[in-house]
Amino acid sequence: MANKRITSDKLLKFCFIIALIAVVLTFIFIYYEKKKIVVLEFGTFAGSIYDVPDWQSYKALDKAIDKFEKLHPNIKIKYKSGILKSDYSERLSQSIIKGNEPDVFCVLPGDFNTFTSIGILEKLDNFIKKDSSFDINKIYENAVQAGQSQGYQYALPKELDPELMFVNKTLLEKEGIEVPSGNWNWQDFYNICKKITKDTDGDGRLDQFGVVGFQWQHAVYTNGQQLFDLNGNSADFNKEGIIEAISFITSLNKLNQNYTVTLQDFDAGKVAFKPFLFSSYRAYKIYPYKVIRYGKFEWECIKLPRGPKGNNASQLNSFLIGMSSRSKHKKEAWEFLKFLTYNKDIQLDVFRYSYGMPVIKDIVGSIEAENELLKYSSGEKFFMDKKSLEEIVEQSLPTPRFHKYEEAMDIADKEIYQLINSGKDAEGTIAKLNNKINNLLKQ
């Protein structure tokens, strides 16, 4: 009986020692795991995403990396500098083929649909759902939609670039026309263009024009219309609002009497209006670019004119960042992706160092944002209040994201361009086009 008690005591001691060793080893493992340095590669390019002059390309990124690494001492971020935007897609595609793409990378508009279709972008839905420190509802909804495809979130927006309307104030003043209010509409727009368009030197040829660059897509979006359903499964070109938009562009073009208005006409000060990106406004409104590019006349930007069914806003361009589905450090990659798109100070840096707009709603409407805009506008008064700027973003429509979008739009653009210039029946032509694109989407 005593021997059994001794054997039992030894077994208990042995089990206790084993358990103690296991606990110690677990703590050692956790300790070294926390101390282990994880190196993430970030894919980016030199210069501005917006194709405007940019003299501090990496400043905001270097600041973000420095701050992130201080908050996460076990994560180091590296990136390859000097890659031009024009070469970025090719370089990224080559790294994907070789299987060594960055853990987190910038996703250019022309790459998003391809990357989602081949499965290289990680679905972010579970990360978003499980992360209590991240509230996607604080980001502009239409900007969030820009990173979605087939109901999944594949990328998050870091910056926004809404469209505005450039106004040649000098030309309007010469013609005795006031700069339109923020709530102007297509009819106001047409009336001004009609009054502006004329032969000023008496040689029998038009030499002054209302607008350049206002395409059928602008008319569609300012009339509140979507060309496809959310998932890109079907085309919706034959809606009344889209027919209405194309008819409006046809009417505008007729004012020019078969003359093709060019950007050279605009730069020479002979055109009153031109759609203009917010990023271009910020870049060319300050010295020295203001003098270099648009120094021949006084100008400003206002909201786009709204159609009968739409708002004073058009398409919203979003600068997206995604995560590789093959990353070996997805937890850390998510933390860095979230930091770039959601951290308050990094989002304010969009106003400090970039030409776009932050994606966080509260930041765009903040006093800090207003101060940054004034600071980096060489002391000039900003052209519209925060509320108007927020309205433009909220009312803009996101670019559709699905695999055959570019191909479908190429077909639509060619046929609608021919329709506008031919004067043919819009309804019949658009109905045929809608069937053609639906057949493409079903293939």
Describe the structure.
The chain has 443 residues and is of the alpha/beta class. Helices cover 50% and strands 13% of the residues. The protein has 20 helices and 11 strands. The chain has helices at residues 2-35, 59-71, 85-98, 109-118, 125-130, 141-145, 169-174, 186-196, 216-222, 240-254, 263-267, 278-284, 289-294, 330-342, 344-353, 361-364, 367-375, 386-395, 405-422, 426-442; strands at 38-43, 75-79, 104-107, 148-149, 152-153, 155-168, 209-211, 271-277, 299-302, 315-323, 397-398. Strands 1, 2, 3, 6, 7, 8, 9, 10 and 11 form a 9-stranded mixed sheet that branches. Strands 4-5 form a two-stranded antiparallel ribbon. Strand 4 (148-149) and strand 5 (152-153) form a beta hairpin. The longest helix has 34 residues, at 2-35. It starts with a helix and ends with a helix. Mean pLDDT is 87; it is low at 287-292.
The helicity comes to 40-55%
| Average pLDDT reading | 87
Oligomer: single chain
Question: SS-based structural class?
Answer: alpha/beta
Number of strands: 11
